[in-house]
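Re: beginner question about structure tokens

> Can someone show what the tokenized structure looks like for a real chain? I only ever see the sequence side.

Sure, here's an example I had lying around. Input first:
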Amino acid sequence: MSLRIQKRNAVIRFLLSICIFGLAACSSTTSSPGTSSQMTSNQSSQNTVAAPAKDNNAKADAPDPCKLLTKEEAAAILGEPIRDPQPGSISDTKYCDYKAVKLYGGIMPASVHIALTPMKRNTWEIGKQSTMKSNPKETKQVDGLGEDAYYEGESLVIFDKDLFITVEVAKNFDKPDHHKVIMDAAKQVAQKIVPRL
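And the corresponding structure tokens:
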């Protein structure tokens, strides 16, 4: 399985765990007597794409991530020219992709991906504990970024100002130092965007 797929699966598992805990918290206060709203553990391990459940007490809206990093800053981090940023959204999540002009192997460009989702601290903590417990070898605490941050696989996830922030960088493909280079680059992106929130 490629590193890109493993990274996406790790992010999906984290987002699914947040959804499940969010749904469990909501249903525990709204379910009527005699109904069961418990989620089974096998549902949390399904590999389906889902955005985190909306946290009603979190920020109403995430800022535009394309306004947090300039095209020039993304190009400097990737070390090559890039196309114009591509914004998008899925449910409450807003994202921005910065992709290099050149394609690696004629297929995939180097890129920076930033995603922001409104979230309260308690929801973050539940998801983080679940992720660290289920993937201890794939996670590493990062100090000095936002209120809390850690690497999960090849993603850097940050909590700050009621926002769940994901930063991913793809570059330096098929090089021995690939993992270190992309982790350092993700941290460079985060150090620029977090103060701008």
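Each token stands for a local structural state, so reading them left to right follows the chain. The CA atoms of residues 119 and 162 lie 5 Å apart.
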